Amino acid sequence: MSYDLIVIGAGPGGYVCAIRAAQLGMKVGVVEKREALGGTCLNIGCIPSKALLHASEMFAEAAHGFEHLGVMVEPKLDLSRMMKHKDETVAANVNGVAFLFKKNKIDWLKGEGRIAAAGQVIVRQADGAATTHEAKHIVIATGSDVARLPGVEIDEKVVVSSTGALVLPAVPKKLLVVGAGVIGLELGSVWRRLGAEVTVVEFLDRILPGMDGEVAKQFQRILEKQGFKFLLGHKVAKVERAGAGARVSVEPAAGGEAKTLDADVVLVAIGRRAYTAGLGLEAVGVAMERGQIVIDDHFATNVKGVYALGDAVRGPMLAHKAEDEGVALAEMLAGQKSHVNYDVIPGVVYTSPEVAVVGKSEEDLKAAGIAYTSGKFPFLANGRARAMRQTEGFVKVLADAKTDRVLGVHIVGFGAGEMIHEAAVLMEFGGSAEDLARTCHAHPTMSEAIKEAAMAVAKRAIHA
Ligand code: FAD
Ligand code: NAI
User: Fold this and answer.
1) Which residue, 5, 145, 297, 361, is most buried by CB atoms nearer than 10 A?
2) CATH: 3.30.70.2690, 3.40.50.300, 3.40.120.10, 3.50.50.60. Which one for 2-145+273-333?
């Protein structure tokens, strides 16, 4: 078959690129080796984790939050029902992508794709049969895979990656998480809420590296109140199987005496790496740097007609970043002008409360030597937050000291992941803290805290 575009990988980067290209009139084929479309995100990432985060949050709320509201219940966990909810959510989403492929007349080329030469993709099916397809453009959207701890084997039963942590058959008594990043804290939260004792071992002396330091500090305190234990500035030296569980040897990152921790399950969550195995990139001569495919501002690799996006290239490993790149690339291939604004990509940690950020942190601004002003407002002083007993956290708005342009917004609080988008829209339009402060916000809403934080930039918050 001959295509205008062949995309390798049907994750959020690949499938969105394919749909946009088909909308623009291209004949599109997508190679995907997994049994279902949707990539890491829909099958073993964003969607199943959010299904379990929601369900476990409801369980914890029923156990600890309802009584104060006069709702008397005694929740009982049915883990297999909870897992069924997760599986049904995944199925609905991946089937949705299959429907969109049909609607847009996109061919799913089932199997593993390899680039034989510029303009040529070989697809090897599960039964070993191979077909060759021609394409004007090839997009690599093969995503990422779990980063491994040297010398530690992931069996997905006792020593698990995020994939195994989404299908544990029972609540572990002791869960040891390696890495206080997004996966460690989200999946740690799921199992903590369901009753596991959770200890997080983190190499650095803080959680959530890359996020605003003040946010990380407050958030750590909140998680500790929920029962999380943190061992910061430590690394895992060895993991040995012991009985049905594991014995983990942990030592200070700076060197020093090791200690031993026992765990029923160990979750390795130390990051992800671009996945390009089996694509034949070396043979075709596609340039790589630190495991990632090198691209220019138009997503083009050094080989003519071969492009790459999503987790396989530079930038944050986020589904919405991959999606926006997919749209931009499809539009560029159709001859349109398009771009992704990497300065305004929100990040959300879907814990309770949630953490959401868009733009620069205070550390970023200090490092860049940018003079800024800051306004903060706590949810404790917000009427709606009190009514919902969701008073933990705060909003922080960072604005350019000279122009008042908003450079970053940080929220720790219930619903932060939804609220962050008014800040994102404001920043896309180059808005100021005063613009935000003078925008009428409905009362009583959690979002009023954003307006108040924007007012606090000019030291004129009303309710604090
Ligand atoms: P992927 O989604 O990884 O898709 C790549 C696809 O390519 C895969 O289906 C793979 O099978 C296929 N493939 C690879 N090689 C070949 C080949 N040679 N031939 C055929 N097919 C191939 N991000 C968020 O923004 N929000 C979240 O809440 C979030 N939660 C996450 C939770 C977890 C547990 C994990 C692991 C990740 C999460 N992420 C989240 C990250 C998100 O999943 C990724 O950023 C996103 O999936 C990247 O999209 P992609 O299209 O680049 O690649
Ligand atoms: P991460 O990069 O967010 O965090 C990894 C953590 O492990 C870091 O804090 C790092 O310092 C620590 N670490 C590394 N090596 C270590 C060692 N040997 N011992 C102890 N600690 C060590 O990676 P994570 O959490 O695995 O997530 C991978 C990717 O998936 C992230 O890039 C993230 O963007 C994406 N993701 C996004 C989500 C979201 O948007 N809500 C949810 C889940 C994943």
Assistant:
1) 5
2) 3.50.50.60
C-beta separation of 433 from 454 below 8 A: yes
Q: Supply the pLDDT for residue 274.
A: 98
pLDDT tens digits along 270-289? 999 999 999 999 999 999 99
Instruction: Report how far residue 329's alpha carbon sits from residue 20's, in angstroms, rounded to the nearest whole number.
Output: 9
Q: How far apart are CA 99 and CA 96, in angstroms?
A: 5
Q: Which atom of ligand 2 is nearest to the CA of 185?
A: 25
Asked whether 200 lines ligand 2 (CB < 6 A), one says no
Q: Which residues fall within 8 angstroms of residue 253, CB to CB, at 6 or more apart? A: 203, 204, 233, 234, 235
Domain limits of the chain?
2-145+273-333, 159-270, 347-457
Tokens 């969550």 locate to 269
Residue 294 is classified by DSSP as P
DSSP-assigned letters across all residues of 198-222: EEEEESSSSSSTTS-HHHHHHHHHH
- Beta carbons within 8 Å of 254's beta carbon, 6+ residues apart: 233
Ligand 1 contact via 110 beta carbon (within 6 Å): no
Instruction: Tell me the pLDDT band of 311, cut-offs 50, 70 and 90.
Output: very high
Neighbours of 271 (CB within 10 A): 14
CB under 8 Å to 215, separation ≥6 — which residues? 208, 355, 357, 361, 396, 410, 412
For ligand 2, say whether the CB of 419 is within 6 Å of any of its atoms. no
- Coil vs helix vs strand at 191: helix
Identify whether 137 is a catalytic site residue: no
CATH class of segment(s) 347-457: alpha beta
Please say whether the structural domain 159-270 has been given the CATH code 3.50.50.60.
Answer: yes
Backbone angles phi, psi at 118, to 5 degrees: -55, 130
CA of 139 to the centre of ligand 1 (A): 15
Length of the chain counted residue by residue? 464
pLDDT in tens, 249-262: 999 999 999 999 99
DSSP 360-428: --HHHHHHTT--EEEEEEEGGG-HHHHHTT----EEEEEEETTT-BEEEEEEEETTHHHHHHHHHHHHH
SS3 content of the chain, % helix, strand, coil (to 5): 35, 30, 40
Helix (H, G, I), strand (E, B) or coil at 21: helix
Domain 159-270 shares a fold with domain 347-457: no
pLDDT at 264 over 90: yes
Q: Is the pLDDT of residue 1 over 90?
A: no
Query: At 170, phi and psi to the nearest 5?
Result: -150, 160
Work out the pLDDT band at 201, boundaries 50, 70, 90: very high
Q: pTM of the predicted model, to two decimals?
A: 0.98
